[in-house]
C-alpha cells in the first residue's frame, strides 16, 4: 500500500475518532450554558478563529472579493450543512449517546455518498453495485446493534 494512502487512512480514522468527542464537548457546553444552539455557535466561532490563525501563520493567499462573489450561491451551502451537523450533534448526543449518534450519521453519510457517487453529483459517476450495497447494509446493521432500539427505555 502506498505510504500516502496509509497516512490518509490513519488521519481519516483519527479525525473520525474526534467527531464524537466534539459532539460530547458541544453537548456539555450546551448543558452548562444556553443550550445546543449557543454551544454550536461557540464551536463554529472557535473553529473559525483557529482556521483564521492557520491562514495567517501559513500566509495562505485569500481569494479576491470578485472571485468570492462569482461563486454560485449553492456552493456556500457547505458551511450551512456543517452548522446543521454541529447543531444536530450537540442536540442529539444527550438523547442517543455519542456512539448512537455517530453510527446514524455514518449510515446517513454512506447512503448519501452512494447516491451522490451513483448520479455523479459534483464528480464522475461511480455506479452502485452489489458489494457497495452490501457494505451499506452492514453499516446499517451495525448502527442497529449499537443503538438497540428494541431495548428502548
TrEMBL record:
Keyword ATP-binding applies: no
Keywords recorded for this protein, A-Z: Membrane, Transmembrane, Transmembrane helix
Membrane-crossing segments per the record: 37-58, 70-92, 98-121, 133-150
Keyword ATP-binding belongs to the record: no
Domain of life: Bacteria
InterPro entries per record: YdcZ
Designated name of the protein: Transporter family-2 protein
Amino acid at each position: 500500500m502506498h505510504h500516502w494512502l496509509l497516512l490518509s487512512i490513519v488521519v481519516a480514522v483519527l479525525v473520525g475518532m474526534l467527531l464524537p468527542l466534539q459532539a460530547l464537548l458541544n453537548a456539555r457546553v450546551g448543558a452548562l450554558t444556553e443550550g445546543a444552539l449557543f454551544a454550536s455557535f461557540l464551536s463554529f466561532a472557535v473553529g473559525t478563529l483557529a482556521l483564521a490563525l492557520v491562514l495567517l501563520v501559513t500566509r495562505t493567499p485569500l481569494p479576491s472579493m470578485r472571485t468570492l462573489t462569482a461563486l454560485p450561491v449553492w456552493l456556500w451551502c457547505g458551511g450551512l450543512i456543517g452548522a446543521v451537523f454541529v447543531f444536530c450533534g450537540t442536540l442529539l448526543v444527550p438523547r442517543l449517546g455519542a456512539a448512537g449518534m455517530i453510527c446514524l450519521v455514518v449510515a446517513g453519510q454512506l447512503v448519501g455518498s452512494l447516491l451522490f457517487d451513483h448520479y455523479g453529483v459534483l464528480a464522475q459517476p461511480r455506479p452502485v453495485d452489489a458489494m457497495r450495497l452490501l457494505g451499506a447494509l452492514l453499516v446499517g446493521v451495525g448502527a442497529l446493534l449499537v443503538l438497540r432500539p428494541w431495548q428502548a427505555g
